[in-house]
User: Fold these one by one.
Assistant:
Number 1:
Amino acid sequence: MAKKRKTPTDADVIVHAPPTPQPITETIEKNYMPYVMSVIVSRAIPEIDGFKPSHRKLLYTMYKMGLMSGPRTKSANVVGATMKLNPHGDAAIYETMVRLTRDNEALLHPFVDSKGSFGKQYSSSTAYSAPRYTEVRLDPFCAEIFRGIDKNAVEMVDNYDSTMKEPVLLPTTFPNILVTPNMGIAVGMASNICSFNLAEICDGTVALLKNPKLTTDKLMDLIKAPDFPGGGFLIYDRTALREVFETGSGSVKLRGRYVYDKSAGCIEVLQIPYSTTIEQIMKKMTDLVKEGKLKEVTDFRDETDLSGFKLAIDVRRGTDPDKLMARLFKQTPLEDSFKCNFNVLINSVPRQMGVREILEEWIKFRLTCIKRELTYELEKKKDKLHLLLGLGKILLDIDKAIRIVRETAKEEDVIPNLMSGFKIDEIQAEYIAEIKLRNLNREYILNRIKEIEALQKEIADLEDTIGDELKLKAVIVKQLGEIKKKYGQPRKTQLIYADDLDEPDEDDLIENYTARLILTREGYFKKITHASLRGNDEQKLKEGDEIIFSADADNKAEFMVLTDRAQLYRGKVSDFEPVKASVMGDFLPGKLGMEDGERPIFMRLLTEEFGEDEHFIFLFANGKGVRVPLSAYQTKSARRKQSGTYSTASPIVAAFCTTEPIDLLLVNSVQKAILIKSSLIPLMATRTAGGVQLMTMRGDVTLTAALADFEDKYDTRGCRKLKIPAAGVAVTPRNGAGEQLTLED
């Protein structure tokens, strides 16, 4: 029988208290800030030893595995062992290892001697093999980052589960922070540290150790500029580099290195900027080819092989390779910038520092390491001296020591009896008791005691060194000299100066070809290639619109446009994309930045200089006209806009530009016209001159049209006038031609 369901009562209902509002600032402080600080301190930003935690844990694991010597081991073994210190997944650990390997070519001085495929820093598509296939061991260079680690040179802390110890920092014997490139993105900050040449860094650090007041200029003479594993060229700008040296922020320009094989007609790019990849370069070149801006190139391909990087570019016969490469440097990542942002953790606090300040902080860190290491050695020597002094006491009566041991009834009484018999402490007694019977002879004991004097001298020297900062610095100077001699390499990135570069003119970056330029009354502009015109030359226009300018010009040409508001605009043909005749084109007022409602009335191609006899002809609605020489519009700088180009006393009707006298037909609003030579119009030097009366008009009659090609539009018999002003004669339009304003060159 089914049980009857109990009806809930008020006592069964649980009443929840309303949620307590929490300020967003408190939420961020309690929930978000711990995450932010964890990312900054424990993941993304390197410390003064030049390593992030992931690097440090990996290398220390390999060190403890005994991989400083002996054969290589499978990468998978290293990855598995590293998880005892870095439990963030095998994939992340292996990716960290890949960048540290010699085969990846990401570092000037690799830390991992590798065998197998580890990808390449300069290629985003070259994949690395799985860890079960590749093999690794520590590079001999790692001896310099672990020197003294077993002598308490750095602090050791528990790992995440307190089962083993790991170093807080590695006791690098050189400023690895400036030798190994490092990039990290944290929360709210990032770090991007470029690499410098090891030999130069050693020289600069030694100079700073000897002279703490060393100037930035002197330091820059020693540490010339960043040095990148990929080589290439660095465009030396001392002002920009000074900013990097002093603030840790700025950028340096890099460009690739190439050679030209004339017999094969091929440019071989052998080195590229460290900040880019071959895929990015080839993608940009592909885009340029599709846009028709790289017609000198017939093919390009990645020819990287076991001998090294190579990007091959086949060029057409007759191409100047240097000019082509100058263009490619400007248009592709073959020239790129490395953005410097030297954020480093100092005592778990992120700081942006320049090169000098980083070196000063490293010197402080290294002094601490040296002092800890020497203190460790001092304690060991003191312990040894203490034992030898106890041994010296039994020299006077070896037989007594033997008798004490032989006559002691119980083993646990041997040490106390020796202590009381020779007045020595427990540690010394333990040492004497452990001596083998065969060594209980006078010769052995005398030889050991002879070490006492040498030990005492060594202890005194160590105590003197530890207490004297100058002597500690001398130790660092000596180590840096040894490192430079053993591991120093010539610069891979060569320096070139901006003054020595053959920079291309802006025109060299523009592809040149002939095109038809068309401007309509409504302001629509077209640039049509001749190849496109051969297919279809029927121009699409807006209803009621008409062409007021048409001419052939080079793509590198410039033009001027006069508007109905007495303003002149200059433009470049190359700023406009080619279009087909079947489209309306670009709206010129928008492209040139004209005012609302402003429209073009005249267009002319520009030459390098205006002709001496060339002049504008302006005709106004009040029947007046004026000629103004083009030289009045020349400016010292290439201004994109000029105002006050003609008089605004009366609306403009037409504008012409000519060197020779031309016939002009002036038509008014009552269909009367005069035909005159333009030479009758006076030439005035002032751009805003109102001109003289050309056609007499009464009442509300205005000039409505001025034409230079009028034969097929009007019957002009009887309209010729030899003097001005002149009264108009009635004219008859041909074939129904209206009184549309026509502006022609």
Number 2:
Amino acid sequence: MKFNDMAFFHECTMQICGSLKIDESIKNCLFFLKKYIPINGIRFCIYEPELCGIRIIAQASDISIKTKRFFIPLSKEAIRYLEANQSKVIKIDHAFESPVAHEVRMALNLGDVSSIGLNLQVQDVGLGYVVIYSRNPMNLSSEHSRLLTLLHDPLAIAMSNTLQYREVVRLKNLLKDDNQYLNRELHHISGDEIIGEHFGLRNVMEQVRQVTPLNSQVLLLGETGVGKEVIANAIHYSSPRRKGPLIKVNCGAIPDSLLDSELFGHEKGAFTGALERKRGRFERAHTGTIFLDEIGEMPPAAQVRLLRVLETREIERVGGEGPIDVDVRVIAATNRDLPSLIQSKEFREDLWFRLNVFPITIPPLRQRKADIPALVNYFIERKVREMKLKHRPVPAPGEMERLQHYEWPGNVRELENTVERELIRQQTRNPNEPLRFHDFDNLSTGVPDPDPGPAMPLPAEEDLLNLDEMTRMHISRVMEKTNGKIQGNDGAAAILGLHPSTLRHRMRKLGISFGRMV
């Protein structure tokens, strides 16, 4: 290398490495090279064979470029030319001499240009290309090619660092995006427990166990508030996909204009306000499960796109240029009568057939009232923790029976709200006073409690029992009802609102024998 070449190499390398920002480095490099080579611009670019095009990583120019396109699709002819010409340096006097140069200058709205392309490699691994160009044809010589070749190593290192930095940023944003989204979903999952799986939900849980090991679509049917989301959690977290994400979408809560972007994502600049690429819910659910709640509220246009995803297992981002494969299990849920919606043309029949692979109907609370005591105790335990209460109150005697006589049009959700409301009211009372649920039914129906009828006559004074005798009779009655079972959601302790150890201690004190009855 000649002395002047050495000085040229050293000074240009300092310009290339003078900034951590590639756009600033390439701009400094351009103004330095203009002293030695009559060029108007320089760009770093890579070839993406999977997308059949060239992506511009960074560029600088002293002329106005009317477009800011960073991805340029190539024709089959241009791709063949690019793959056939892998020389280290290529000099082109007129853009039309190369289909690649011609299509790039057309995409960037440049006139006829002359250019020199340098193939950047490190240890025989291709990284991409650096291209310098002049707006005047035949303005670049072999000497200019030689000077550019001298800069191969620092340019290759700059390209490698830029690509690795972009990948780190992409993975960081991906991780941040997933963490933010999954953290929002985490509190819905924590604490979700199947209450009544051995009683009112026994048939439902049997169906869950049947479908869990498979990848089949599941359709959850039932009134609002019956716990469809809890069943969806049970299916996912018991399935082989449990290590993947569970992404939840309320189809009725997303405006029609945003539904495509939310479900399938969008590319940067796809529409006004799309400042960066965004992955949709289906991409987030890759290798996991997506739960489409209120599927009956999905607009017709979105139903068509969902049908295509179910058929091809491919999505396409808004503004995207190609399909993206997704490996997702779909669980849908609705409280609406889908066959009626099909007859009224509000829901597609072919989508119904696709979703209705394995329907599971979750019964309303009024059809499984035996689960109410266990649910009440579960909600008391959970709400005491959430509200950070110092005392755990118990329902007053007879309150469970009152709750079981109500029809619960709001199902489990209404019962949960009722428990929380009474716990809030309890804060202004004596902490040892039990929960009574005086007005739980009035809040939903506006109808006062039914007339209980004439009061039962008080027993004669000689028939009055002391408190221990009354307690012994009540506990014995509950033990008979539970066949001697103390622990568990259906045990005597849950019905009485006591800890199992407390109940056993009280039974010993009252002389009541216990043990599982045959």
Number 3:
Amino acid sequence: MTDNQKQDGVAARLSLRAVDSATFRTSKAADELNEKMRSNLGLQHRYEPARLAIARSLAIKTPPPPLPESASSESGKSIYGRNLFGEDDLPAWLTLIVQNSSGRVTSVDSLLEEVRRHWHRGMVVLTEEWHNCSENYEAFILSLVEKTGIERQKSHSAEEDRRGLSETPPSADWPASSHLGPLKLQLGEPGTDLKTGDTLTWHLNGRGSPHVALMGGTGTGKTRLARSLLTQAQSQGSTPTLIFDFKGDLSEDQNLLKALKATVIEVSKRSVPLDVLYTTSLDPAELSNAAMRFRESFTKIPNGNVGAVQQDLLRDAARSALRKRRDGNPVSIRDVRDELQAQYAQASRKGDIVTSTFNDLTQDGIELFSPTMTPLEFFSQSWIIDVHAAQETAQRLIVFLILDALYALFKELRDSAMDSDGNRAIRMFLVVDEAKRVLGYGQPSLMHLVRESRSKGMSIFLISQSPDDYDTVEENFLEQIGLTVCFRSNGSSPRVLKECLGQPVDLAGLPDGVAVTRLPGKSLPARFQAWV
């Protein structure tokens, strides 16, 4: 057995659950450098420079030494493993650290010490390199790129050829954005700080997160603020916008429709013209990924649990339907239903919650999707998807599959353009009204988009009734949010309020039109008059 195989075995034996919930720390000195680096790079969360530091240390061939005595006595703040490494990437990080350890990592405790050393060394190295680059953001990033061995002007043709995308990569056809430059939005009208009288603005496309969370009860002003922010953004350059409207009020706002140049699709009367099961090729790996995305979304739709065997059959049915795609003909939900029925018949299985859900969604007279547009064609335009009159299972299927198609498209795009000041071009706005209806189901594509779409130029607006809507969500969405605004609500979750405002705040007594926010770089929240 080779050394690498032995180390892979150690990584496999380390419990991912234990590592996920473990609390990782570095020295207090390195933690202070971590905070400075977060501020220097315009990052939102402590784990972002920490990951960069650990990766930088792993790139050094010699093992990380024990911390110097002057730094070993005090520790910095802790970060859970799931946040430090990311839930999806945790196995990869763990394997890299174990393989790099030359046998030192054999348990969670030894892993904690190894990460402590890597984090400390990497942060010291990054800080030195930051100063060597004269504290210039672009020079620093380019120096890191060069250290990875990446040729900045090198074509990605090998990877694109493998996917069959070399001639027309999706990013080549995406509408050019005029949002290259600072996109600063006023927080309402007048949008004034009640203490200082200053007008509050937010820099949407700077080095922080471009995502927004607006919370508040009915009639408090949160939806009005969302409309204002979107309208201001559109007045500075037209950008495709997708809105999921669960109440039906946004689709009736003629001023918003005009500003966004959006088309309304009321799904109870018209099908969505999107090929939600679109694939760029018949490559087996791509078909499998598409089938698994469909399965993960569909299993969250029935009002009941879907077992492991049912999930396998559902995945196989989707993959079989996708394999039969010929001559550019799109695959419909009915095609997957028919393949599933054939799978059940072959296995002599009786109908169950999965087949009955398919039957409800594909009965005569119901066509939720008419797959006439590719994702690139569809998402290059602005739409308001009005689902308020549809059945709840149909609402979930429509929203979940559209999000799947959006994520599949965006993850293939190259990063959007960025100017020398760190302003990133915005390619698209995604707005989820009544976000609780999606957040509570842990829909994978939405979680991926919130985490990953920043570099692709997407800005996501999540509009909800209360901070408590985030309290039971497994994914900590608020870590990924750049602007949080809370209007009056009965929400009282201390964890959520501290996460988004830095301290507990009594929201129940706020008048209509008054909100609380904590702008990036500010330690304390501010009350402001959004509307009068």
Number 4:
Amino acid sequence: MAKKSSLLESIIYYGVKVSGAVARALPVEFALWCGRRVGDFVYMIDIKHKAMTYANLNKAFAGEKSPGEIRQIAKDVFRNIGQNIVELYRLPLIDRKLYDTYIDFQGRDNIDAALEKGNGCILLAMHFGSWEMANLSCAMYGYPYKVLVRKQPKFSRLDDLLNQYRTCNGSIVIARGAGTRDLVKSLKNNEVVGMVVDQGGRGGELVPFFGRNASMSVGAIRMALKFDVPICFSVIVRQKGPYHKIVVHKPFELKRTGDPERDVSENLSQLIATMEQYTRNHPTEYVWMYKVWKYSDQANILILSDGKTGHLRQSEKTAQLLEQALAERDIKCRTETVNIKYRNDSKKRAFGVFYKLMGWSLAYGGVHRVQPYLTDECYRQITSIRPDYIISTGSSVASLNHLLSKDHQAKSICILKPGLLSTRLFNLVLMPKHDVVSEDTLSKNITVIRGAPNLITKEYLKTQTDLLLKRYSHLKDKFRTKIGILIGGDARNLYISEEQIKMLIRQVSEAAQGLNAEVFVTTSRRTPPAIDQYLFRKVKKDPRFPLLILPNREDVPEAVGGILGLCDILIVSGDSISMVSEAASSGKKTIVFLPKFRDPSSRKSSKHFKFVEGLNKQGFILSSRTKDIGQAIFDIAKQKIHTRPLDESPPILESLRKLI
């Protein structure tokens, strides 16, 4: 291992030495042109740093700049770094005459003003522009100057070579950490010390940067407060080709409130605001290749909704659990939902196929190619988001989840099978047990769940019940047994027949009469009109049925939750996995009947059959034929059959803890 490391260091060392000699031999304009072309080449092959750069730019500018503008900035970042490296190589050639030719140095009088106090001066910079060129400024004008740098412990020879470039014009390099005592001594000698304020790492201070807390270095602020050292913020901006402008700001007026930690935070925040403004005005000059917000205490969760209520509730529950997992690490969350709307159904199907074949070409700046498939408002929304976690349920939004998670370097969470895409493309997949073909095929990123994630909790049920009772005040009889019926609608290979519903209502009506119970009924937007019409005629005026909600005629958002909360026994159609899961999670005794199959031979192989029978075998529900529901109600009412509540939260929460 040591030999390999030594060989790699030798290759890099001599590569830098040779390329440095070439850069110094070429005319400056041509050398910089070569640096830009090297930047283009690295942009093409260095996927890791390109992805990080593009993700950081998205977090900073999404909604302010178009995807095309962000993509161009990312390319220019690499080109600028190529030029900066060329200028580092050429430092030994720079004398005062050349320096004055290429550098417009503004603010020298501010350094003089800072040094008049006799406590030295901290030139505070960031990883911005050609900062190695900026480090020459003090030495060129006769100021004793030392710069604090981070050592490269793995490549000591390369570190020594780079420091030779840095010190060739009189600057002195101090290694971060080990050289702190020398740095303090230099300030006491009234010298100028160069330090950077960004990239604070784990030990930095969290302050706002582009609207989100980022870790920034506190060393300069602490030193300035402790030793009363003036700080001058300085920045170098490339004007064109080899020409730069250096701006040294007036000594910063440090605030002192008597609270050291507050002083550090408030002073640092003001300096970072200045840094942000330069970065906003010249985004291609900043080094976006590191994890800018890695140590942030803030996170954004994005839910991509396909418009199906059941799917949205699964995503919302997962987002709630993710918020809980992040809160355990003192990370504050903000969750937003974007409704994904395709221009039409054919566009939705076409995008799924297109992404399967060409998705690899869309990442890191190709999101504009999805615009023809989405509505204008939907496209605007997905290009304005800044997520750290993306959650989606269903195959029609899985492709967008994958694309956006790559562009933003966000963690992707997919619920249900992701359609044509491989489950391995996502950071976490919550896979229903009925979709698992073989346990041996499961990868580490898959968590198997028995039902669908849902919002059902005691608090949720109480809130929904209160809302329903407020809307329908005649339902406040607390003493009678209550039976709830939740009817879904047609699915791909399933349909609910009018004959089934007639038999169901007859069975329930007889059971309700025998138990002196009342029945609450709700259908769904997928319920066929003929069934809605039958129920309206049959039960609307029946005193045993005091509540009938037809969502295709009236919008009652709390219908399902309220009925789950109010009723003692639930009867649910098995076409909706989400609705069955909600009923089973409510803790109420739940009976499920399966609709009819268009292809009867596919009954036992269908996911709905596997799902219902799986929960039935584990005791979470009672599976029943429609004609036997009356007897099932009596058996449950007489405590002959018991069901237990379904709770998927613990395994999902544990998976999310591992994810973050």
